Amino acid sequence: MTQVSLTNLIAGARAGFLVSFPTDTVPALATVPEKAGLIFAAKQRSQDKPLILMAASAEDLWPYVKGSEDEYKIWQELVDKYWPGGLTLVLPASERLPKVMNPIDPTTIGIRVPNSAIAQTILAQTGPLATTSANFSGQSPLQTMAEIENQFPTVRTLATTEYEGEMSGMGVPSTVAKWTGINWQILRQGAINLDISSDNQI
């Protein structure tokens, strides 16, 4: 599949096809949550490596997670500080989350809002998408639409003319922090140097 227009990419994502577009970290390989199995297959990815649910706003993501009122306050504090940006929060999943997003442990889900105008434009029109970096599992993330088009010829990649002038991504995956029920555990240091202070815990 050659590179496509923004309109074509959004339509493809909504229809359940695999798409790829730039973000603030590394380019995303994405589809609607119900079709997340396509990502595992394309990447030859083990199902014990869950995907990230990405959206244009935190409000779009909260229905997919569940917690107490106190937990939501703590989560919101981190969101207010670091989103949009390169921080993925792994939180308890609600029943709304399709199990195919995290087949081995459907009780948790990683969520993120990217600090990228083009990614937010896409996500605002598709709704939350299942995402991961665009590469075969175990290899380094691909950095350009041309590289992704070459390695994943059936994926609809966003034409570079659609985001000319936008800052390119950092080239580093997001930082991942998991909520343990009482505090945060850093699973991966990445794009954001996370400050987990004592006031971000129960």
Walkthrough of the structure:
This protein is an alpha/beta fold. It has a single domain (6-200), classed as DHBP synthase (Alpha-Beta Complex), CATH 3.90.870.10. The protein is 25% helix and 19% strand. It has helices spanning 6-14, 37-43, 58-61, 69-82, 117-126, 145-151, and strands at 19-21, 28-31, 52-54, 87-92, 108-112, 129-133, 156-157, 175-179, 184-188. Strands 7-1-2-6-3-5-4-8-9 form a 9-stranded mixed beta sheet, sandwiched between helices. A hairpin with a 6-residue loop joins strand 1 (19-21) and strand 2 (28-31). Helix 1 (6-14) packs across helix 5.
Q: Based on CA inertia axes, which overall geometry fits?
A: globular
Low-pLDDT segments, ≥5 res: none
**Mean pLDDT reading:** 93
**CATH class (first level) name:** Alpha Beta
For the largest sheet, list the strands in their spatial order. Answer: 7-1-2-6-3-5-4-8-9
Question: Please, how many domains?
Answer: 1
CATH topology: DHBP synthase
The main pleated sheet reads as:
9 strands, mixed
Based on CA atoms alone, the radius of gyration comes out at 16 Å
Number of helices: 6
Order of helices and strands: HEEHEHHEEHEHEEE
CATH superfamily, by name, is DHBP synthase
The N- to C-terminal Cα distance equals 49 Å
* Strand proportion: 15-25%
Number of strands: 9
Helix content: 25-40%
Assigned CATH architecture: Alpha-Beta Complex
Structural class estimated from helices and strands: alpha/beta
